[in-house]
Amino acid sequence: MRMKFFTVKLKTLLSAAAVLLAVAVALLAANFSGAVEVYSSVNRSLPIYSVGRDDNKIAISFDCAWGVEYTDDILKHLEEGGVRATFFTVEFWAKDHPDYLKKVSDAGHEIGTHSATHSYMSRLSESEIRAELRSSVDAITAVTGKTVELFRPPYGDYDDLLIDTSNAMGLYPIQWDVDSLDWKDLSASDIAERVISRVKSGSIILCHNNGLHTAEALPILIDTLRAKGFEFVPIGELIYRDGYKIDATGRQIAENAA
Hints:
Elements: H1 2-42, E1 50-51, E2 57-64, H2 71-81, E3 86-89, H3 91-96, H4 98-106, E4 110-113, H5 126-144, E5 150-151, H6 160-168, E6 172-173, E7 178-179, H7 188-198, E8 204-208, H8 214-227, E9 231-232, H9 235-238, E10 244-246, E11 251-254
Parallel strand pairs: 1-11, 2-3, 2-8, 2-9, 3-4, 5-6, 7-8
Antiparallel strand pairs: 10-11
Helix pairs in contact: 2-8, 5-6, 7-8
C-alpha cells in the first residue's frame, strides 16, 4: 500500500516539475526574444519620430501627394493661427500643382520631399533611392528656390539603406509620433482629440493636405494646444542638426542630454 502511494506521489511530483520546467523555459525564451528585439531595434538606422526637448515646441506636418481641394483652407487656418508648418510633397504633386507649392512656400512654410513616385522605397536599390530623392528635391527647388533638407518616406516604409542614403545626401529622414488619422475621414473633433491627447514636447504631428476634415480640425487643435503651452515650429526648427543620437523609439536626443 505504501509503495503504491509512493509511486503515485512520485508521478505527481514529476508532473508538477515538468510543468514548472516548461513554464521556466517559456519565460526564458520570451525574455530572450524580447532582448533580441530591443537589441535589433537599437542597431537599426532610424528616422526621427520625435525630438527630446522640454521647451514644449512641437511641429505639425502635411503630406501632399494627391489633390489640392482643401489646401487653401489649411493655409488660411495656419495663417490665422500664426502657425508655420512643414509640407512634404511628392514630385508629381509638385509638378502638377506648382502654383500651390509656391503658395505654400511663400506663406513661410517649410517644404520637404516625400519622394518622386510615392513608392515603397525599402524595395529600391541605393541608386534608385538616390534618383528618387535627387529628382524630387530638384523639382521642389525649381519652384520654391529653396534648399530641401527633410525627407519623409512614403507609407512610413523604410529600411537601413533608405535611412543611411537619405542622411548621406544631407536629408534628415522624418517620421511622426502623433498620427491624426485624417486620411480615414474622421470628423474634425475626432482628429483634434486624437492629436491633442497624444502630443508631448518634441512631438511631430502627421496630417494630409487632402484629408476631408483636416482643415476644420486645425483651429480646434491649434487653439487647444497653444492654451496648453505648446509652441508650433517647422520640423527644421524642432530637430537637432548635429550632436544628437536617436534612441530605439526613434526619439532624437541631444548627446549632452542627461
